Amino acid sequence: MAARPRRLRASRVLAGFGLATLVALILADLELAHPDPWLTLRRIGAGLAAPDFGDPGALAYAAALTVAFAICGVFAGAVSGFVLSFGYAWGPVRGLCIAVRSVHELFWALLLLGITGLGPLTGVLAIALPYAGIFAKVFAEYLAEADPAAARALPRRTPPLSRLLWSRLPLALPELGAYTLYRLECGLRSSAVLGFVGLPTLGYLLETDFRQAHYGAAAASLAVYLALILPIRHWMRLRLAPLWLGASVWLLARHPAPPMGDGALLRFLSDAVPAPIRAGDWAGLGPWLGRMLGEQALPGIVATLILSQVALALAAAIAVTGFPLIVTRVTGRAGALAGHLVLVLARSVPDYMLAFLILQVTGPSMLPAILALGLHNGAIIAHLMGRQGDAMTARLRPDAPRGLRLAAWELMPRLSGNFFALCLYRWEIIVRDSAILGLLGIATLGFYVDAAVQELRTDRAVLLLVVSALLTLGIDGLSGWIRGRMRITAPGMRKAEPEAVEAA
């Protein structure tokens, strides 16, 4: 028998990530580029303190479209993912799912704009395509983990599909439904962010008002968004899903959509072919690839990794200091309620939207992206750790310490494995989102993708998106390898996320 690989110690992982973070901090652009950040911050604060609901009709319509895009996109992704989950074990299907989910919704929207235009179909597909890959993976895992006892009770010659549908599926349905509701919250965040590429959701109003310095109106858009996402567990129930879906389809069908140009898809596919090949110059393909990889892909990768490394360190620090806030035995009942509210707000605002808001104060640098990614992901990890820690306190001895001593000497040592697993789990997501934040002007891979799209160079955009997807998959593989060598997992991670939404 082959010897089992030696366990990777947490101290070595911490040392490695600490050294990488130090190097990233030295290389990161953390400059405050705004001429007077405090003046802008005061103006934004004044707007947040006095939201301007000047046009309630426009706000209501944008909110309705935000919900409609989310529901239709998640529904289409869930149905497609459910079908794909039956064949997920087959290599080509799994490869297709990995490919579509490794591209961010905003990147999908940028590509689809050239095919379907600035209309409802673009928004729905931008959410549905990556979500289909995510749903396929998670649904396949839930079905595989269902109790096999019912399947063994069926006749031996029962076809595999019938065995799956009549034995495993009924057992997995509650988990599939809970995960779909969790994904709807994610879809609502994605739908709002799609407004930053021109779709008429709440994100569009927020961006427009901020760029025009109408901070009161922008605060109203943000307030409406929070009013939608914070109580989502109350207004979105599975039994009401058909009603919400029908209303969303009706609303999007009535929204004006630009006509698709004749041959738009074929033209896009043709433009996606590298320029030297289209010109019949196969010898020029190598130099073209060399220029693209050396002048755009490599600098974009380096900037993406620098930004994501500092953001991961910040998220870890926020998680360690933030999880005790929602443990009742640490902060008391009132303190836990306040801490819960802070973490829910931080995790509910999309990191892209948060980075845009901070960018208005700091100016263009890596700083707003690092702060947004750190706050958003740190709040998610802190929320999950805090819930686990709060459950642990019920099993502690009566004379166990309280307050910060309880968090430092009792809870953190017991939660350390979960902490590492959750940070490594979010690492791939932080890298993926670091790339997309380039659309805000930060020189990550998204910056070069956006430039290629603006210049109508589809072949360059597709190549850079492939590079971004490969980078994300590489980080995901490295994260999985580290977790395996450390022999840690995030217990019930898929289940913990829906529970966190329910607790919110």
UniProtKB/TrEMBL annotation:
Annotated GO CC locations: plasma membrane
Gene3D superfamilies tied to this protein: MetI-like (1.10.3720.10)
Protein's cellular compartments: Cell membrane
UniProt membrane topology term: Multi-pass membrane protein
Keyword presence, Cell membrane: yes
Bilayer-spanning residue ranges: 57-86, 106-129, 188-206, 212-230, 297-325, 337-359, 365-385, 429-449, 461-482
Keywords linked to the UniProt accession: Cell membrane, Membrane, Transmembrane, Transmembrane helix, Transport
PANTHER family linked: ABC TRANSPORT SYSTEM PERMEASE PROTEIN P69 (PTHR30043:SF1), PHOSPHONATES TRANSPORT SYSTEM PERMEASE PROTEIN (PTHR30043)
Protein name: Phosphonate ABC transporter permease protein phnE
Organism: Limimaricola hongkongensis DSM 17492
